[in-house]
Inverse folding.
């Protein structure tokens, strides 16, 4: 008796090999479902037919099979396989989340802040892709907490305070990222400085949440570096050079033209550069969660002020783009509706 195998099983058997190959060539998770589906067709699909064998025909080129119903069905199977295997990691890469930190009851928690959202579907064939530089009034940033507390057990007054802090942190996160997206690269040094800002901003949040002394001190070093990269990027864009210095006040003072779009006094909320060097290697005085978060808040304002001061080609702060929905995917595979 001939053994029957489902399409899901047949695809899954080959996805093990395909995913290993895609990982080896450094394909981002966000791109793997489509790339894997295309490879499956190219390597394993000989022909496609309806229930009538004589209708069998080759799959053809990508342009030919991408709009078909059978490829949409195949892509959905592949996407579900990836979602089951990689879970939230796949969604975070696909949906442009950025990591931020906030306080609830004096305790730091991570937030996964969506930079862009899908707000509306038009006739089921297109959608609005919206970029944000702040938290809109209809959103509660506490919904973006990762492994947050039981809010039902938190006093109302504490919830209101937590919402205010989370709103500020999430809005700054969105503002920094969308501003950087609109900046053209002027030279190699500027690109290196610009690309270093977000990794240090996110690393500072992740380390702050760990709350151990060594983690808090390394979080402060990440804050130092985020501010340095931002100030040096602004200097590089305006004068085609930057000063090799850790002194944030000095970096602020030597910038040509108008000062960066933040109060110079904010820099005093971070440890001075000599203390930062000690903290980098685990030395220096003991630091508290509250003082470290105060520095984090200042770092976010400093970084945002610098990137707001950079010359931009375009501003994505409140930008809406109507896009045609790809025929092979469902909308929830594109972006979360939140």
């Amino acid at each position: 008796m001939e053994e029957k195998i489902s399409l899901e099983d047949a695809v899954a058997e080959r996805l093990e090999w395909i995913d290993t190959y895609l990982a080896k060539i450094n394909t981002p998770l966000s791109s793997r479902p489509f790339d894997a589906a295309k490879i499956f067709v190219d390597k394993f699909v000989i022909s496609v037919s309806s229930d009538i064998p004589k209708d069998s025909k080759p799959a053809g080129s990508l342009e030919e099979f991408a709009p078909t119903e059978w490829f949409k069905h195949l892509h959905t199977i592949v996407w579900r396989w990836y979602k089951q295997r990689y879970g939230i990691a796949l969604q975070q890469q696909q949906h442009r989340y950025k990591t931020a930190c906030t306080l609830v009851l004096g305790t730091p928690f991570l937030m996964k802040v969506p930079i862009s959202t899908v707000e509306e579907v038009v006739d089921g064939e297109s959608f609005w892709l919206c970029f944000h530089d702040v938290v809109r009034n209809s959103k509660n940033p506490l919904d973006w907490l990762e492994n947050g507390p039981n809010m039902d057990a938190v006093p109302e007054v504490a919830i209101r305070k937590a919402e205010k802090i989370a709103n500020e942190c999430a809005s700054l996160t969105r503002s920094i990222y969308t501003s950087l997206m609109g900046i053209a690269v002027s030279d190699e040094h500027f690109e290196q400085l610009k690309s270093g800002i977000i990794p240090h901003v996110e690393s500072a949040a992740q380390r702050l949440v760990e709350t151990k002394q060594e983690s808090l001190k390394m979080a402060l070093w990440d804050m130092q570096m985020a501010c340095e990269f931002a100030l040096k990027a602004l200097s590089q864009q305006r004068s085609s050079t930057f000063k090799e210095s850790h002194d944030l006040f000095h970096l602020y003072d030597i910038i040509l033209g108008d000062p960066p779009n933040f109060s110079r006094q904010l820099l005093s909320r971070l440890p001075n550069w000599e203390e930062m060097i000690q903290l980098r290697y685990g030395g220096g005085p003991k630091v508290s969660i509250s003082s470290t978060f105060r520095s984090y808040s200042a770092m976010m304002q400093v970084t945002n002020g610098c990137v707001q001061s950079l010359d931009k080609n375009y501003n994505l702060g409140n930008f809406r783009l109507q896009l045609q929905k790809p025929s092979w995917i469902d909308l929830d595979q594109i972006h979360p509706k939140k």
